[in-house]
Structure to design on (138 residues):
């Protein structure tokens, strides 16, 4: 797992349950605006498992690092937080590091006790689709 993401996972796993939602909201602000070329979601994949409209794109660079792009409305702070966690935790990571991220990432973070199973399923789908896009480019 990329070191930045491992640090985030540890922070969440050790945090008291009542603080976890506040921590998640902080990550919802980590989602960067899309570049102009992606603003209409051209070339992005929608994640239908999410309750709200969520789009993502992974681009494997020549040096095998991965650039990620996420778009989710601000009115969906939990789903947006998943994107923020991945955006920050995977920044600068290689394709192999991202593919090695455990599929049960959100359970390892202890989020299953703080948010609904439906939201966990959406977050897991986001990670799964991101990994699939990376595998297709490798």
């Amino acid at each position: 797992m990329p070191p930045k993401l491992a640090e985030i996972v540890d922070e969440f796993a050790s945090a008291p349950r009542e603080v976890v939602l506040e921590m998640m909201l902080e990550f919802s602000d980590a989602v960067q605006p899309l570049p102009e070329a992606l603003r209409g979601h051209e070339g992005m994949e929608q994640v239908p498992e999410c309750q709200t409209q969520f789009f993502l794109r992974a681009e494997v660079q020549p040096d095998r690092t991965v650039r990620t792009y996420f778009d989710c409305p601000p009115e969906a702070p939990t789903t947006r937080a998943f994107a923020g966690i991945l955006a920050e935790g995977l920044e600068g990571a290689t394709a192999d590091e991202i593919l090695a991220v455990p599929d049960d990432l959100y359970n390892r973070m202890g989020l299953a006790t703080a948010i609904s199973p439906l939201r966990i399923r959406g977050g897991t789908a986001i990670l799964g689709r991101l990994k699939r896009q990376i595998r297709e480019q490798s």
Summary: The helical segments are 3-14, 17-28, 77-90, 95-99, 105-108, 117-137. The chain has a mean pLDDT of 94.
